[in-house]
Amino acid sequence: xxxLVLNGPNLNRLGKREPEIYGTETLEMLENHLRSKGxxxxxxIEAFQSNVEGELINRLHKAADEHVDGIIFNxxxxxxxxxxxxxxxxxISIPVIEVHISNVHKREEFRHQSVIAPVAFGQIVGLGLxxxxxxxxALNQWIEGEKK
Length: 148
Ligand code: DQA
Hints:
Blueprint: E1 2-7, H1 19-22, H2 27-41, E2 44-49, H3 53-65, E3 70-74, H4 83-90, E4 96-100, E5 122-125, H5 130-147
Parallel strand pairs: 1-2, 1-3, 3-4, 4-5
Helix pairs in contact: 2-5, 3-4
Bound molecules: 1,3,4-trihydroxy-5-OXO-cyclohexanecarboxylic acid.
1,3,4-trihydroxy-5-OXO-cyclohexanecarboxylic acid (DQA) is lined by residues 10, 74, 76-77, 79, 100-102, 104, 111.
């Protein structure tokens, strides 16, 4: 089983960026943690972060061509307005779990809408970095079920 962990704009600054909202752990720590959880589960984790919309779209297409089994995606602020990312997810048939570290619903109004959610397999919001691990467990269980 192969799962792609995709992070969008400004998430390369995890640990330094608004730590009162996003915590003090870095993206590297998060990715390493997910890799070790993945190896316990027999899941290969691929991680990619970009601040560029088109690079995220290209990575989603590549995941489809490489037969990735599931995707954990925090699209950052693109969540709220990127129809191009939404269409990219709709164009592939891989389950995508949308993850947000913060509880976007108790923040600014512009964060309440997700244009990604209608094409996502599911959504995890407001559980901090733990949300990524929960997404990994959920995707892995679903993929295992599909293989039977
Ligand atoms: C975020 C929430 C978005 O509104 C914000 O633009 C981010 C991070 C989150 O993980 O809480 O960059 O996706």
